Amino acid sequence: MEFLTLEAEDYEHALKEARTQWGTAVRVHTRKDFLLKKGMRKEKRCRITFFLVEETEPVEESVAEDPVFHAGDHLSFLMEQNEIPPARIEQIKSMMLSDEKTLGQAELEVQFFQYLLEGLQFEDSVQQRYVVLVGPAGVGKTTSLVKLAIHLRAKEGKKVALLSFDVHRPGALEQVRFFAKEYSLPLYEATDAGVLSGLLEVLETYDHVLVDTTGHSSKDVMLRDSLSDLFSSFDDKEREYTLVVSASSKFTDLIAQYELFSEYNLRKLLVTKLDETQGIGNILFFAKEAGLPLSFLADGQGVPEDFHRADASVLVPRLRGFTLELDQFFPSL
């Protein structure tokens, strides 16, 4: 069976043109409505895929009815596909379906797409000398630390060193030592504020010192106090805190992690494990509600290849369920 395609301004015109050329033998297999960018304008288009059947007897020609589109059902489908936080679903429905006019599929998808990206901030520039990565255990802080160090050295020509405060867990220390040796990165270790004080003179010879910390929970009061003592050794103007979170975490857990580490002056958000989740709605909403700009995104264990500057063009291909060709909004994709 041979499939043919034809494109027109809408479904009716596409079907009419197909039947003008091939008569009543046309049988529509699929249709796709999308927006075509022309200069500063976007035009609605419809592409149909169809096949031809042999006519054994005259068939009364009739115009196929356009399938009924239910905006609410499609919006629910998009939210499910992109794992929108349950607590935000009714709010989105109320906002997007409140208009009295009936939304078509393309218009609904454009509005939902714009809503997902609206308010997102991106900032991958590293200015301060001391970059402290904080976050719960298991999110990939150490691996991200090494990836960021290699990025700053290779892409920006910076002189970079690693500093580990995560000296209470032998496994974690072995990991950062392995990476430091593997990628020729200077590594310093500090068990307390006294040891750190003796390292400050040499650390100030680097453009950036990336600090690895122990993941902790709200119950680890002594550990939190120990880290605070270490952080106080840095000049406030020379340090910045980046919260590291996993894309596979639930939205409620992300909020709890933000609240736990909000005692630090969090400046940015680094997201790991994008390859371990199907939808990114939780991350998009968390970044906006926390008010933190996305800095870098990690989507695998590969060092340094699975590490990217945070940008909409990296996130958009991970959106699911859209019939629109979203790359038309980002020609560089």
Q: Which structural class do the helices and strands define?
A: alpha/beta
Rg from alpha-carbon coordinates:
26 Å
What is the tally of helical segments?
A: 11
What is the mean predicted local confidence, pLDDT?
84
Q: Considering DSSP H and I runs of 4 or more, what fraction of the residues is helical?
A: 25-40%
Strand order of the largest sheet: 6-5-7-4-8-9-10-11
Gross morphology is elongated
Listing every helix as H and every strand as E from the N terminus to the C terminus, the arrangement reads EHEEHHHEHEHEHEHEHEHEEH
The count of strands amounts to: 11
Low-confidence stretches: none
Describe the largest sheet. 8 strands, mixed
Euclidean distance between termini CA atoms: 33 Å
Structural write-up:
α10 links the parallel β9 and β10. The longest helix is centred in the middle third of the chain and has 16 residues, at 141-156. The protein is of the alpha/beta class and 333 residues long. The mean pLDDT is 84. Helices cover 37% and strands 21% of the residues. It is built from eleven helices and eleven strands. It has helices at residues 11-22, 71-81, 86-96, 105-117, 141-156, 170-182, 193-203, 221-231, 251-261, 281-290, 312-315, and strands at residues 4-8, 26-38, 41-52, 130-134, 160-164, 187-189, 208-212, 239-246, 266-272, 294-298, 307-309.
